[in-house]
Specification:
By secondary structure, the chain is α/β, with parallel strands linked by helices. The protein is built from seven helices and five strands. It has a five-stranded parallel sheet, with helices on both faces. The two termini are 12 Å apart.
Length: 136
């Protein structure tokens, strides 16, 4: 199953645990395929660096290296018109559409509000686990 993780889910999984960490574990175990783009990877890295400064005991480097090596990286075209209130979030939608995935996992209210765009499901981490990982 191909999924796109919004930055808040990826970073929360590293720094805070909970359902986002369970999703990262499922990816590491090969239960899901993580789809990303260079733009998404750059945002993951930027936000991880910011949080690392505030939480020096947590090193996101292994996860960042792993995602660069093991995620399916695709080149994404821009969407024909802005969709999200925060147009910077459009890259997650474009990534899912380009990869043929119908799932974006996010906790971002603005991104969640785009649920249904071109058939995409934008769901929260807990909902993803309950729907797709409980039987795995």
């Amino acid at each position: 199953m191909k999924v796109v993780l919004d930055t808040n889910v990826f970073v929360s999984g590293i720094f805070f645990g909970g359902p986002p960490a369970r999703i990262l574990t499922a990816w590491q175990e090969g239960q899901i395929e993580l789809i990303a783009s260079v733009e998404i990877l750059q945002e993951y890295e930027r936000v991880c660096q910011e949080l690392s400064a505030a939480a020096p005991g947590i090193d996101p480097t292994p996860f960042l290296k792993l995602v660069a090596l093991d995620a399916t990286l695709i080149e994404i075209p821009p969407l024909p018109a802005p969709v999200c209130t925060d147009s910077d979030d459009d890259k997650f939608l474009a990534c899912a559409l380009t990869a043929g995935s119908n799932l974006v996992i996010s906790g971002d209210k603005q991104l969640l509000a785009t649920n249904g765009y071109h058939g995409l499901q934008i769901i929260r981490p807990r909902e993803f686990i309950d729907r797709y990982l409980t039987s795995v």
